[in-house]
Design brief:
The chain has 111 residues and is mainly alpha-helical. Helix content is 49%, strand content 7%. A two-stranded antiparallel sheet has the order 1-2. It starts with a strand and ends in a 10-residue tail after the last helix.
């Protein structure tokens, strides 16, 4: 199992690079995960990451692309809840990458 070094602490990651423990997530952990993916988190990214964590809190699962897009559209409007917008923010894999950066498990139907 690999780890992510955050503030001198080694956080365990699963085989796909997701945090092994949901409770290890923090803003600093998200920044470190994003850095590993070559992403600089902007306020637009944070808006989606926090919304994803809200979704997880409500449904106890990480959404696939379609439910993610629908949820974002309901909460933030159709401009932000579009596949184009989310694909641009998260390198064409919004459900997988956004879940990873939000400290959530990998969506179950993502390869």
């Amino acid at each position: 199992m690999s780890t992510l070094l955050v503030n001198g602490h080694a956080l365990p990651l699963d085989k796909d690079g997701y945090l092994a423990d949901l409770n290890d997530w923090s803003d600093v952990a998200a920044e470190a995960l994003a850095h590993n993916e070559g992403i600089h988190l902007t306020p637009e990214h944070w808006e989606i990451l926090l919304l994803l964590r809200e979704f997880y809190g409500e449904f106890q699962l990480s959404p696939a692309n379609r439910p993610l897009i629908k949820y974002v559209a309901q909460k933030l409007g159709t401009e932000k809840g579009s596949s184009l917008h989310l694909n641009l923010l998260f390198k064409g894999t919004p459900a997988k990458l956004a879940a990873k950066l939000a400290g959530l498990p990998k969506p179950t139907n993502c390869l």
